[in-house]
Amino acid sequence: MKVHYECAPCFLRQAREALDLATDDEKLKLEITSQLTDLIGQRFQPNASANEIGTEMHRTIKRETGNHDPYHQERAKSNEIALKFLPQVKKILKEDPSLKNYLKAAIAGNLLDFAALGLDIDMEAMILSAMQKELTVDNSPELEEELKKGRNVLYLADNVGEIVFDKLLIEEIQKYEVKVTVALKEMPILNDACLEEARDIGLDEFADLTTIGTDSVGVVYKDVSSDFLELFFRSDMVISKGLGNYEGLTEMDLKDKPVFCLFNAKCSPIAREIGVEVGDNVVLKL
Q1: Residue 30, Cβ neighbours under 10 Å: how many?
Q2: Model confidence, pTM
Q3: Under a CB-based contact definition with an 8 Å cutoff, are residues 243 and 263 in contact?
Q4: CB 247 within 8 A of CB 256
Q5: Region label for 3, one of left (φ > 0), alpha (ψ between -120 and 50) or beta (otherwise)
Q6: Domain formed by 72-285, architecture
Q7: CA–CA dist 269, 1 (Å, integer)
Q8: CB of 219 within 8 A of CB of 245?
């Protein structure tokens, strides 16, 4: 996705929050902020890629502070919230075990995103509310058709905590007799899930686990590994979670690959781009 005008203040908000999490050194934070404003000033141009700028910004913060995982506590908090509400989500799914409801559960998990929404959000209330909302964009029938005829599914994970709900969906789609491979981040960035968090919740019991080969925000084509790209184009279909992955995938030549993006439209630029309201739930075929 190309940058919109709202992306610049969002970058600066994320930078402030990440710096506050990464270090208590006020002088260092000022020095890094100066670097980041220069970075954004130089890179923030029409047709620039939003998640490429975000990736460079967060890598700068990690490198300059020496803190390789500023969101460590928030990542743990996300898992706590997800596991707390897992019984309630399972109860809703038992009452309506349709594929669409499992997709909605996975999207509800997408709200566990401190990077997009900030640190002072009532995540618990938002998750339960999201489970009650219908899909504003609903390409789930096409997704199900691809599951019926495909054999290999690549699942692009997003955030820690969110993967607890992804696990429910992955277990469900395996009823279509497909093999699922989940791609996670190679190293921590923001609150994105890595192999360790996926194994902690037992995701490896239901799917093969791999990484995209890097720590980019979403999928950045020029940064991901050749092994990941080979897997991407070899898979029969792709299910992608979250805004960062959506941003990156829209910058790629998908070569007619069936790609379905599952997310909550948490920001105005993406909502406007796909024609929905902020907060709407989406199953979108690219």
Answers
A1: 10
A2: 0.93
A3: yes
A4: no
A5: beta
A6: 3-Layer(aba) Sandwich (3.40)
A7: 9
A8: yes
Tell me the per-residue pLDDT of 117-174, one tens digit each, with 9 for 90 and over. Answer: 444 455 566 666 777 788 999 999 999 999 999 999 999 999 998 999 999 999 999 9
Domain with CATH 1.10.8 in the chain: 7-65
What are the residues facing 24 on neighbouring strands?
none
pLDDT for the residue 233 = 96
Tokens of 208: 């093969």
Q: Cα angle at 9 between 193 and 241, to 5 degrees?
A: 25
169, amino acid identity? L
The length of the chain is: 286
- CA angle at 113 for the pair 99 and 267, rounded to the nearest 5°: 90
The residues with which 152 forms a beta bridge, in sequence order, are: 179
Structural element, H or E, at residue 250: none
Give the span between the Cα atoms of 130 and 101, in whole angstroms: 11
Q: In CATH, what is the architecture of 7-65?
A: Orthogonal Bundle (1.10)
Q: Are 157 and 241 in contact (CB under 8 A)?
A: yes
